[in-house]
Amino acid sequence: MTDQSPLPDLSTEMDFGGESFAPIYTTTVTVSGGTASHGRASGRARSADGALDLDLRMPAELGGDGRGTNPEQLFAAGFAACYHGALSLVARQVPLDPTEISVEATVAFGRDPEDGGYLLRVDLLVRWPGIDPETAAPLLEKADSLCPYAKMAWQGTPTTITLAP
């Protein structure tokens, strides 16, 4: 048996009345080293706190050795975890037990037909045994509106790119 982590003191209510973005958590990951091809980097990804430290490699399907993770896998893990957390939060508020919820994220990397660059496509599959579709539908929609990854997919994310001095 594992100890359950304490639940964060967050809600789906409008408990913030500010006029600007207010960070609750910030992290930094640096990718360096390796080689790049097909617009893809390999090398090492390390978080500032050391909790994430892994090799990045091109998947075998793109001509790489496949002996490390790749950005699509990391994005899929982040998206699935984020949506899972949002859905679990709204489920607890109903109240329903979220322990059986699982979220599978499939991320496809391909060509953007509009500009010839690259594009991602994300498909989320939610498994929630014992919950009927009519009960789940509004909760899935609420989780979609709360999940920052889903918001990023639908609305975009403010991004700055700066060359270090």
Describe the structure.
- With 165 residues, the protein is of the alpha+beta class.
- The protein folds into two domains: 25-69, N-terminal domain of TfIIb (Single Sheet), CATH 2.20.25.10; 70-157, GMP Synthetase, Chain A, domain 3 (2-Layer Sandwich).
- It has helices at 71-93, 133-146, 148-155; strands at residues 29-32, 36-37, 40-41, 43-47, 53-56, 102-111, 118-127.
- It has a three-stranded antiparallel β-sheet, with no helix packed on it.
- A hairpin with a 5-residue loop joins strand 4 (43-47) and strand 5.
- Helix 1 (71-93) crosses helix 2 (133-146).
- The radius of gyration is 18 Å and the shape is globular.
- It starts with 28 loop residues before the first strand and ends in a 10-residue tail after the last helix.
- The mean pLDDT is 87.
Brief summary:
The chain is α+β, with helices and mostly antiparallel strands and 165 residues long.
Q: What is CATH's topology name of the largest domain?
A: GMP Synthetase, Chain A, domain 3
Q: Which of globular, elongated, flat, extended, rod-shaped describes the shape? A: globular
Quick one: how many beta strands?
7
**Total of DSSP H or I helical runs spanning 4+ residues:** 3
- Report how far apart the termini are: 50 Å
In helices, the fraction of residues equals 25-40%
- Give the strand line-up of the largest sheet: 1-4-5
Structural class by helix and strand composition: alpha+beta
- Under CATH at level 1, the class of the largest domain stands as Alpha Beta
Report Rg: 18 Å
Count of spatially separate domains: 2
Please state the second-level CATH architecture of the largest domain: 2-Layer Sandwich
Pattern of helices and strands: EEEEEHEEHH
Q: Output mean pLDDT.
A: 87
Low-confidence stretches: none
Going by CATH, the homologous superfamily of the largest domain would be K homology (KH) domain
Largest sheet: 3 strands, antiparallel
- What is the beta-strand fraction? 15-25%
